[in-house]
Design goal:
This protein is 22% helix and 42% strand. It has 160 residues and is α+β, with helices and mostly antiparallel strands. The protein is globular, with a radius of gyration of 15 Å.
Length: 160
Amino acid sequence: MNKISGIYRCRLIPAERILLKDDIIVEQNDEFVVTKWNTIRPKPGFSHGCSCYFLLEGIKVSKIYRADHSLLYWYCDIVDYHYDPADSSLTVTDLLADVILYPDGRMEVVDLDELAEAMECGLITKKQMTTCLRNLNHLLTLIYRDKFDRLQSRLNNLGL
Protein backbone atom coordinates (compact mmCIF):
# COMPACT_ATOMS: atom_id res chain seq x y z
CA MET A 1 0.00 0.00 0.00
CA ASN A 2 1.25 3.48 -0.81
CA LYS A 3 1.48 6.23 1.75
CA ILE A 4 -1.98 7.06 3.12
CA SER A 5 -3.02 10.69 2.67
CA GLY A 6 -6.15 10.50 4.80
CA ILE A 7 -8.36 8.18 6.82
CA TYR A 8 -12.15 8.11 6.66
CA ARG A 9 -14.27 6.64 9.45
CA CYS A 10 -17.40 4.98 8.13
CA ARG A 11 -20.19 4.03 10.53
CA LEU A 12 -23.21 1.89 9.80
CA ILE A 13 -25.22 3.12 12.83
CA PRO A 14 -25.61 6.04 12.57
CA ALA A 15 -24.76 6.10 8.87
CA GLU A 16 -21.87 8.50 8.36
CA ARG A 17 -18.51 8.87 6.62
CA ILE A 18 -16.12 11.37 8.16
CA LEU A 19 -12.61 12.38 7.14
CA LEU A 20 -10.44 12.21 10.25
CA LYS A 21 -8.66 15.35 9.10
CA ASP A 22 -6.99 16.14 12.41
CA ASP A 23 -5.63 12.63 13.07
CA ILE A 24 -1.86 12.45 12.80
CA ILE A 25 -0.40 9.39 11.09
CA VAL A 26 2.63 8.43 13.19
CA GLU A 27 3.73 5.28 11.36
CA GLN A 28 2.44 3.08 8.56
CA ASN A 29 3.31 0.08 6.43
CA ASP A 30 1.43 -2.71 4.64
CA GLU A 31 0.36 -4.31 7.94
CA PHE A 32 -0.63 -1.39 10.17
CA VAL A 33 -1.25 2.34 10.49
CA VAL A 34 -0.66 4.15 13.79
CA THR A 35 -2.39 7.47 14.52
CA LYS A 36 -2.78 9.87 17.41
CA TRP A 37 -5.81 12.09 17.80
CA ASN A 38 -8.07 14.27 19.92
CA THR A 39 -11.77 13.47 20.19
CA ILE A 40 -13.92 14.79 17.34
CA ARG A 41 -16.70 15.75 19.73
CA PRO A 42 -15.64 16.68 23.29
CA LYS A 43 -16.49 13.97 25.80
CA PRO A 44 -16.48 14.32 29.58
CA GLY A 45 -14.68 11.02 30.22
CA PHE A 46 -11.84 11.19 27.71
CA SER A 47 -10.07 13.71 25.53
CA HIS A 48 -7.52 12.01 23.29
CA GLY A 49 -5.89 8.78 22.27
CA CYS A 50 -3.95 6.81 19.74
CA SER A 51 -4.93 3.94 17.48
CA CYS A 52 -3.32 1.12 15.58
CA TYR A 53 -5.20 -0.12 12.54
CA PHE A 54 -4.18 -3.75 11.98
CA LEU A 55 -4.87 -3.96 8.27
CA LEU A 56 -4.49 -7.72 7.90
CA GLU A 57 -6.52 -8.60 11.01
CA GLY A 58 -9.54 -6.30 10.72
CA ILE A 59 -8.96 -4.85 14.18
CA LYS A 60 -8.40 -1.28 15.35
CA VAL A 61 -6.87 -1.04 18.82
CA SER A 62 -7.08 2.34 20.57
CA LYS A 63 -5.63 3.64 23.81
CA ILE A 64 -8.15 6.08 25.29
CA TYR A 65 -6.88 8.74 27.69
CA ARG A 66 -8.49 11.11 30.16
CA ALA A 67 -7.68 14.83 30.00
CA ASP A 68 -5.02 14.30 32.71
CA HIS A 69 -3.27 11.79 30.36
CA SER A 70 -4.13 8.76 32.50
CA LEU A 71 -5.24 5.62 30.68
CA LEU A 72 -9.00 5.15 30.74
CA TYR A 73 -9.12 1.89 28.72
CA TRP A 74 -8.15 0.05 25.56
CA TYR A 75 -10.92 0.08 22.97
CA CYS A 76 -10.91 -2.50 20.18
CA ASP A 77 -13.09 -2.04 17.13
CA ILE A 78 -13.79 -4.79 14.65
CA VAL A 79 -13.42 -3.10 11.28
CA ASP A 80 -13.15 -3.53 7.54
CA TYR A 81 -10.69 -1.56 5.42
CA HIS A 82 -10.78 -0.20 1.89
CA TYR A 83 -7.75 1.54 0.36
CA ASP A 84 -8.48 3.88 -2.56
CA PRO A 85 -5.35 4.32 -4.70
CA ALA A 86 -6.96 7.23 -6.59
CA ASP A 87 -6.58 9.55 -3.59
CA SER A 88 -4.42 7.36 -1.30
CA SER A 89 -7.17 7.27 1.32
CA LEU A 90 -8.11 4.51 3.73
CA THR A 91 -11.78 4.02 4.60
CA VAL A 92 -12.29 2.20 7.88
CA THR A 93 -15.78 0.74 8.27
CA ASP A 94 -16.81 0.06 11.86
CA LEU A 95 -18.44 -3.38 11.91
CA LEU A 96 -20.03 -2.52 15.27
CA ALA A 97 -18.70 -5.27 17.59
CA ASP A 98 -16.26 -3.80 20.12
CA VAL A 99 -14.17 -4.99 23.06
CA ILE A 100 -13.16 -2.74 25.95
CA LEU A 101 -10.24 -3.70 28.20
CA TYR A 102 -9.85 -1.78 31.46
CA PRO A 103 -6.55 -1.29 33.30
CA ASP A 104 -7.88 -3.40 36.22
CA GLY A 105 -8.29 -6.42 33.90
CA ARG A 106 -12.05 -6.22 33.32
CA MET A 107 -13.30 -6.81 29.79
CA GLU A 108 -16.57 -5.97 28.06
CA VAL A 109 -17.81 -7.08 24.64
CA VAL A 110 -20.23 -4.36 23.50
CA ASP A 111 -22.59 -3.30 20.73
CA LEU A 112 -23.59 -6.79 19.62
CA ASP A 113 -27.19 -5.53 19.71
CA GLU A 114 -26.24 -2.92 17.09
CA LEU A 115 -24.64 -5.66 15.00
CA ALA A 116 -27.91 -7.63 15.11
CA GLU A 117 -29.90 -4.50 14.24
CA ALA A 118 -27.61 -3.80 11.28
CA MET A 119 -28.19 -7.34 10.00
CA GLU A 120 -31.98 -7.09 10.45
CA CYS A 121 -32.12 -3.73 8.67
CA GLY A 122 -29.84 -4.75 5.80
CA LEU A 123 -27.14 -2.25 6.79
CA ILE A 124 -24.40 -4.89 6.86
CA THR A 125 -23.69 -7.50 4.21
CA LYS A 126 -23.37 -11.22 4.87
CA LYS A 127 -19.66 -10.95 4.03
CA GLN A 128 -19.19 -8.08 6.51
CA MET A 129 -21.07 -10.03 9.20
CA THR A 130 -18.94 -13.15 8.78
CA THR A 131 -15.77 -11.02 8.67
CA CYS A 132 -16.88 -9.27 11.86
CA LEU A 133 -17.57 -12.51 13.72
CA ARG A 134 -14.30 -14.12 12.61
CA ASN A 135 -12.23 -11.06 13.53
CA LEU A 136 -14.02 -10.73 16.88
CA ASN A 137 -13.28 -14.39 17.59
CA HIS A 138 -9.61 -13.83 16.67
CA LEU A 139 -9.38 -10.82 19.01
CA LEU A 140 -11.07 -12.64 21.90
CA THR A 141 -8.80 -15.64 21.39
CA LEU A 142 -5.74 -13.38 21.68
CA ILE A 143 -7.15 -11.86 24.88
CA TYR A 144 -8.11 -15.21 26.43
CA ARG A 145 -4.68 -16.67 25.63
CA ASP A 146 -2.99 -13.66 27.25
CA LYS A 147 -1.54 -12.46 23.92
CA PHE A 148 -3.21 -9.06 23.70
CA ASP A 149 0.18 -7.51 24.45
CA ARG A 150 1.12 -8.29 20.82
CA LEU A 151 -1.49 -5.73 19.75
CA GLN A 152 -0.68 -3.27 22.54
CA SER A 153 3.02 -3.26 21.73
CA ARG A 154 2.62 -1.25 18.50
CA LEU A 155 1.39 1.75 20.49
CA ASN A 156 3.44 1.16 23.62
CA ASN A 157 6.73 0.81 21.70
CA LEU A 158 6.14 4.24 20.14
CA GLY A 159 5.56 5.77 23.58
CA LEU A 160 1.97 6.59 22.77
